[in-house]
Design goal:
By secondary structure, the chain is α+β, with helices and mostly antiparallel strands. The protein is built from 15 helices and 42 strands.
């Protein structure tokens, strides 16, 4: 028995070796290949990076979906030099920007160690792995010195922190940098305002990009990768915002106030605020905006206008009345520039912290009366727009009419000592600047690398807090120097941080990626004329609404100007507000009405206009319209009328115009209601009577509340009042009543 057992062991050992060793040998290369990859995962996703520096897989665990194009030749990281800086490299390669891709990646705990082709840099990226996202932050750059050649540590101009070839999906939100459909969302989100976020479209995929710029900040800046379901996306972003101490853009978008439309005051004072509030209430507005130009002389120091003799006390009276009426006060500001009539510019010594677009050197001495300035170098290409030709030489401001492009290089037709500055003599060799006057041109943009923006922000923060404002419009957001992706949100952030309490929501004129967390309601558009309101909205507002919805954000369907009819315009009419408000509701968006008090007073249809706005605003906030109805409303070519039935329920009716804009003064639209043909009509600019060649027993007339209006007769004709909106009902077919209406219309004045 013992011998048999002793014999069996060698036989068994031989069998095990001969059977399993080949499989083991085959498996080892696969295991080694897997081990050579870097795997980073959390509860939602699994990211695999090959050891040669490329992202090879991103799995959404809940669905098992592969989110990357796995064979794309896209390095995860790369270094860019604006020219080769290494001695041997600049001898090899031409003087132009060159990118050095990652060619080796290793993971050590919660750090990635990344090497690059043809450079000696080693990037250390810190990982922050949570259940909601994975954070990537550049912590340091190490450098190896090669033991031959002329070597030194070389500069880095840009570094691509993350590049991911993400499969295309149904939706891509360019602002938020998110690719999503109903199942999965992939978002590469900047965690700091100093991170440059972008995306580059390819035929099969979109390269999501997070990068850093040495002119802004390289270290301790980063991005967060989110891979989750559509339903969880905002929860994950909210977690990033809180962990990285960012503005709470998700929380703002989820507030009940987020959908509130606003009435923007014009020329408001303590004497007329009550009348403004009354109009705002008729329009169903729950918020009111004060434009700073009504109380401040100029942007910069925001000194009080003469209409506000008591300063802050007068402004507080206005905002307190707004709050007492049950509405939220907000403020519309310029903040990244200073007005030419502000003490920053016109106090005799112009501030040197404004931005400039060109710099020059005097090639000859300049006395205090010369109208010609001779300079070093060709000034070709300097600004020639009226109002933007402004030079600062020490403490003197000078305008010019023209310049020469052949030696001697000169500015000609100069006016010395403008904006209260003093003409002076200047030495040869004096440096001076062409100031960055904005394109209105009423303002000079400020240098964001100085403390002037903080000074302006502190003044605005004080006004915001003391007046009791709760939201803000960042106007003129485009008025910052390059790089725009950074300075747009940087300047907004400086002001935003001074506003206490934190704004409920904000809007702005220009968006950068980090601004998603600040400008939770996107932007408004500048006003369009009444006659062009529909084509303008189709071209801009509606396209923007569809686009920005992919960023989980609304757009302001304003600013909507309020104009009464006059000899130059038909004015804003009820159907125009019907169109604007219906499309805003379709996209879950607010509108904004510019409250020109005199126009509101003079427009014969103000009551109708405001009733339309209020009807849509109440329907939106009550959530009475279904998703299916909202999809119908999104059609830019189909217009809808919103009314209440006898039970007070909201009803939508598709309708179309049967008169033309030049067929003054009657405006009419046709629709079907309960099997009957209806025409809603009104007098555009006054009152009168409408005569139709139809017997009155074939017609019924009522107002929008359903109250019957008597119809007079004149033989076989019917005489209808023409003033505010009325609804004419008949059993006649649509085409027949349209023909009769258009053929027989007659105004009795």
């Amino acid at each position: 028995m013992m011998k048999r057992i002793y014999y069996t062991y060698p036989v068994l050992l031989v069998w095990l070796v001969s059977t399993l060793l080949p499989q083991f040998c085959i498996a080892m290369p696969n295991e080694q290949k897997e081990n050579n990859n870097v795997v980073i995962e959390n509860a939602e996703m699994r990211l695999i990076i090959s050891n040669d520096g490329k992202a090879r897989s991103l799995i959404h665990k809940a669905t098992g979906e592969e989110c990357l194009i796995t064979n794309a030749d896209v390095p995860l990281c790369a270094i860019t030099q604006y020219r080769p800086y290494d001695n041997e490299n600049f001898l090899m390669f031409p003087a132009k920007p060159r990118t050095f891709p990652a060619n080796k990646i290793e993971r050590n705990g919660n750090e990635l160690r990344i090497e690059f082709q043809d450079t000696y840099d080693i990037a250390i990226i810190e990982l922050n792995i949570t259940d909601y996202y994975i954070g990537f932050t550049l912590k340091q750059i190490d450098y190896r010195i090669e033991d031959f050649g002329v070597k030194r540590k070389t500069e880095i101009d840009e570094i691509s922190l993350l590049q991911l070839p993400v499969r295309k999906r149904e939706n891509f939100g360019e602002w938020l940098n998110v690719s999503w459909d109903e199942q999965t969302a992939i978002c590469l989100l900047g965690t700091h305002p100093t991170t440059y976020i972008d995306a580059f479209a390819n035929k099969e995929y979109t390269t999501m990009y997070a990068g850093l710029d040495f002119q802004v900040k390289l270290f301790n800046s980063g991005a967060a990768l989110i891979t989750t379901s559509k339903e969880k996306l905002l929860t994950c972003i909210d977690k990033v915002e809180r962990d990285y101490h960012m503005p709470l853009g998700v929380e703002s978008r989820q507030r009940k106030e987020y959908q509130y439309s606003y009435y923007e005051l014009r020329d408001v004072t303590t004497k007329n605020i009550d009348e403004h509030i009354a109009y705002a209430q008729k329009g169903g507005f729950k918020s009111i905006v004060v434009y700073y130009v009504d109380f401040a002389k100029a942007c910069g120091h925001y000194e009080w206008r003469k209409e506000y003799p008591n300063g802050m006390k007068d402004l507080q009276e206005i905002t307190n009345k707004i709050k007492a009426a049950g509405m939220i006060p907000g403020i519309h500001i310029h903040y990244s520039k200073v007005a030419v009539n502000d003490p920053y510019i016109n106090n005799g010594i112009p501030d040197s912290r404004t931005n400039h677009v060109r710099e020059f050197i005097l090639s000859e001495p300049l006395d205090d009366s010369s109208t010609i300035i001779t300079i070093e170098g060709n000034p070709e290409g300097v600004r020639m727009e009226k109002g933007r030709r402004l030079l600062q030489i020490d403490n003197e401001l000078v305008t010019y009419e023209n310049y020469t492009t052949e030696p001697p290089y000169q500015f000609t037709g100069c006016v010395r000592g403008v904006f209260n500055s003093k003409a002076a003599s200047h030495d040869k060799g004096q440096h001076f600047r062409l100031l960055d006057v904005d394109d209105w041109p009423l303002f000079i943009r400020v240098n964001q690398n100085t403390g002037i923006q903080k000074e302006i922000a502190e003044r605005l923060g004080k006004i915001y807090h003391e007046a009791g404002f709760r939201f803000v419009y960042f106007d003129g957001a485009e008025d910052v120097p390059m790089p725009y992706w950074y300075n747009v949100s940087r300047s907004q952030m400086i002001v935003y941080n001074e506003m206490k309490p934190t704004p409920l929501f904000a809007e702005g004129a220009l968006k950068s990626h980090y601004g998603w967390h600040i400008l939770s309601r996107g932007n408004a558009f500048d006003i369009f004329p009444p006659e062009r309101i529909r084509p303008a909205m189709k071209k801009y507002t509606l396209r923007c609404a569809e686009q920005i919805a992919k960023d989980f954000t609304s757009v302001n369907f304003g600013w909507v100007n309020y104009l009464a009819p006059n000899d130059k315009t038909i004015g804003m009419q009820p159907d125009m507000y019907e169109y604007i408000c219906s499309k805003a509701v379709a996209w879950n968006s607010p509108i904004s009405l510019v409250g020109n008090l005199e126009e509101l007073q003079n427009h014969p249809r103000t009551e109708d206009n405001l009733r339309v706005i209020k009807m849509w605003e109440e329907a939106k906030l009550q959530g009475v319209l279904t998703d299916k109805q909202k999809e119908l409303l999104k059609n830019p070519e189909q217009e809808y009328l919103l009314m209440k039935d006898k039970k007070g329920n909201y009803q939508l009716y598709p309708y179309r115009q049967i008169t033309k804009d030049d067929e003054k003064p009657i405006r009419a639209f046709i629709f079907q209601k309960a099997g009957r043909t209806c025409i809603i009509y009104w007098h555009m600019n006054g009152t009168g009577q409408l005569t139709l060649d139809i017997e009155k027993n074939k017609l019924s007339l009522m107002n929008e509340s359903g109250k019957r209006i008597p119809i007079r007769s004149a033989g076989s004709k019917s005489i209808l009042p023409a003033a505010g909106r009325l609804i004419l009902e008949t059993a006649l077919p649509q085409e027949e009543i349209i023909k009769l209406f258009r053929k027989s219309i007659e105004i009795i004045k």
